[in-house]
Amino acid sequence: MISIINDVCLFLIEYYHEFVYLFCKKQLMSRRNLDKIRNNIAWNRLLFHYIKEPHNIYENRYEILYVEKNNLYSGYIQQLRTKEFLNLKSFQYLVALLYYIEIQDFIMPKVINFIVYLGQFFLFILGSIHTLIKWPINK
Q: What Å distances lie between residue 51 and 20, 44, 83, CA to CA?
C-alpha cells in the first residue's frame, strides 16, 4: 500500500505540477524540495526491489504493516517463497545469496571476533595505564 502511494506521489510530482501546487504546503513547493522527495521515493523503491525484497524472499517471509493505537507498525508473516526465490533476477539472486548467506555465515563471526579482540586489547591497555599510574614515583 505504501509503495502504491509512493508511486502515485512520484507520478504526480513528475507529470502534474498543478496538483502538487494545489495540495502541498508552501514549504514543499520549491523545485529543490520536490526533487528531494522524488529522489527519496526512487531510492526507497530501489532499496526495496534489490535489497529488502530478496532478503524477505530468502527468509521466507512477507512484511506487513498494521495500525495499532494510531501508530504504524511493521511485522512479518512466515510463508514458503521457493518459487519466488527461483524467479529472482540475476542481481537480486546474487544479493540474496552473497549478501545474506555469506555475510551471516562467513563474515559476521569474523567481524564479531575482531571486535571482541579489539575490546580485550583496549581493556588491556587501560589496565596497563591504570597500574602505571598507581605505582609510586621513586625520587
A: 30, 10, 18
* 3-state SS, residue 29: coil
Torsion of CA 4, 16, 44, 58, to 10 degrees: 40
Q: Domain boundaries in the chain?
A: 90-139
Query: What secondary structure does DSSP assign to 95-124, as a single string?
Result: IIIIIIIIIIIIIHHHHHHHHHHHHHHHHH
Of 47, 57, 62, 63, the residue nearest 97 (C-alpha): 57
Q: Are the CB atoms for 29 and 20 separated by under 8 Å? A: yes
The span from the CA of 17 to the CA of 9, in Å, is 11
Per-residue pLDDT of the chain (139 residues; tens, 9 = 90+): 567 777 787 788 778 777 777 777 776 677 788 788 888 888 988 888 888 888 888 888 998 888 888 888 889 999 998 888 888 888 787 777 776 666 677 777 888 899 999 999 999 998 888 777 776 656 5
